[in-house]
Amino acid sequence: MTAIDRPHAAFDTVVLAGDAVRMIDQRVLPDTETYVHAVTAEEVAHAIREMVVRGAPAIGIAAALGVAIEAGRLAADARDARALAQAVGPAIERLAATRPTAVNLFWALDRMRRVLSSASGTATTLATALRTEAQAIWEEDLRMCRAMGDHGAALLAPGCRLLTHCNAGGLATAGYGTALGVVRSAWRQGRLRSVLADETRPFLQGARLTAWELQKEAIPVTVITDNMAAWMMKTGEVDAVIVGADRVAANGDAANKIGTYGLALAAHAHGLPFYVAFPTSTLDLARPTGESIPIEERPAREVTHVGDKRLVPADVPVRNPAFDVTPASLITALVTERGVVRPPFGPGLQKLLAGS
Ligand code: MRU
């Protein structure tokens, strides 16, 4: 494992465990705490698609680790580094085809591709380099989340009551979380009073995952259904909203879990700050706005059923877009590991990345 101190000893979202990628099975939380061990890139791809592992940074990390174990598995049969690079290529394509919206997946795979394209020497040397790179992606994510948490916490007034959507926590990252990283830092600094977690239909990331990981750390969390959020704002039970992101365009438009856009509109109507927290690996500066961000449409069954129980009459069509895009105009500030960006976000993000 890593020299970095663990964010919370209680669970591993996605880690390298010998020749396997070990992932807590997020499909069955909070009832059951069990781990899936994937030993091929194909198994990791399946785990991403099936939501064993989810959340933008965690998907990227899982894919990178998937490439690393695939290379380790194929190294013995490869003549040299170049032959191994060729053999691993299809696995990268397979991993890239799992989920389209979170740019962290493509960012992480590009990093692994860069290592592959510099392949020389023995297959074992390349397999080791890929493993080192994947582990570096994991460690960087944890560092970024901690830094982001501290930057975000400084925005909050003491006694703040936050509302969040989906799960942008330790379960969506290497650990600590993005939006929940801010929650964790604010809690440790004594600034946070409580968290309202949107249930987040249809996959229930808020009810099942955010509530689970905050409860584990005794951070006060109350779950509400998604349609209660605007009313909670109206009745004065929310001081600020904080969410994560799956892809942020150059102008600050932010794709995140479906329902985020509605929440931003409601926050705006009530004069509440709306913060989006994400590592710079979530930035897609090649897209000038969020208009062209691909939005994943997930299986209808996630809407028609809860577990085995059917909620919608058979044969009635349903829609299941998994993400929406919140326009930059509704966002108060972007919180990254490099600092906080205020509008106008375009120049602010450029400046942030230039390091000034
Ligand atoms: O479909 P999911 O569960 O992968 O969607 C996750 C989200 O939308 C999160 O808010 C986002 O990835 C940020 S996670 C730090």
Summarize the entry for a quick read.
The protein is of the alpha/beta class and 356 residues long. The protein is 40% helix and 17% strand.
Could you walk me through the main structural features you see in this protein, from its secondary elements to its overall organization?
This protein is of the alpha/beta class. It has two domains: 2-145, translation initiation factor eif-2b, domain 1 (Four Helix Bundle (Hemerythrin (Met), subunit A)); 150-354, Translation initiation factor eif-2b, domain 2 (Rossmann fold). It is built from eleven helices and 16 strands. The chain has helices at 41-49, 56-74, 81-96, 103-117, 123-153, 179-188, 205-216, 229-234, 260-269, 301-304, 345-354, and strands spanning 14-17, 20-24, 35-38, 160-164, 192-198, 221-224, 240-243, 247-249, 254-257, 274-277, 283-284, 305-306, 309-310, 323-326, 333-336, 339-341. Strand 8 and strand 9 form a beta hairpin. The longest helix is centred in the middle third of the chain and has 31 residues, at 123-153. The chain is globular, with a radius of gyration of 20 Å. The model is unreliable at 1-5 (pLDDT under 50). Bound molecules: 5-S-methyl-1-O-phosphono-5-thio-D-ribulose. 5-S-methyl-1-O-phosphono-5-thio-D-ribulose is lined by residues 54-57, 102, 166, 168, 172-173, 178, 205, 244-246, 256-257, 322.
